[in-house]
Amino acid sequence: MTEENSLPFINDFSTTLGALILGFVFLVGVPGNLFIVWSILARIRRHSVTTFLILNLACADGFLMALTLFFVIYLAKQSWVFGIVMCKGVFYLCNTNMYASIFLITLMSLHRLVAVLLPTKVSLIASPRIAKRVVVGMWALVFIISIPSLVFRNIRIDEDEMGKPRMVCVPNHTLYAFETVSGFILPYAVIITSYVLILRRLRQTQFRKKVRSEKLILAIVVTFGIFWLPYHVINMIQVFNSLNMYRLSSSLDHIWQSSRAVTSALAFISSCANPVLYTFAGKSYIRQNGFAFMARLLEGTSLDQGTKKGRSPNSESNVGLNNVVSNGNGGVSTPNEDNTG
Question: Is residue 336 part of a domain?
């Protein structure tokens, strides 16, 4: 890997734009995710599996948003002023929450898959009690697989355009490859497969009506992919280039180098986008419920569940599926579902 390839700032425009994006992300993402956490913990008495997953996702996203201040300062000063320990520690925590976000979204998709394909057994296979254990195991996993951030990041002394020394917190190209494969390609393959199977199953039934909970989770999945894809594309281009597997032209080389700051900042947007998605999904509740609209969206009411009246009373196999697709709380409504609280 060349020295220039590792720089997070190549020109003033990309650096300034990246800093502005991160500043916006901090202002929206921190209070937005804290509001979600408050809504679930203080307003919702009965937590579904999906509500529990959304709570963990909001915690991961909110903590990640709080770390953006370090990167705003990094881009503004064009030098890492926090030392080697913070260089490793901050990026380690970023990786931890990045993995947690995508793994939680993957768990949401798998939960929907189980609920649609095995509606009568979802309370046993994907109960809140089991979900708690799975999520605890997931957090343990993300803390472990983020360890390469501690190993493969270091401080390097470089010079800016004026010849002044600056500190750069840089990773080894191996870290980029590991991040992309384990934190994007593999989990997203599971997500896409899950939704393909879900859509195939729904098309085989009479319940084809678009439901808020399905659209909300799908919007979370799509949003994450849109904002993280450019970051991982840049990762792989840099990996291929550093390994001499594929030599880019000088003009294209400059393009991806100069876009590192922007694509990294865009990746953070996915963590502040979820509160915005929830707000749009629950906008019909805002006038009636005020600040409690988020709880109403996630918890669901008899009004949300009143869309069940179109189901066939003679189709026993569709009873559980009907509960899944008609529940507007983003979770799965089953007669035997336990509380997480």
Answer: no
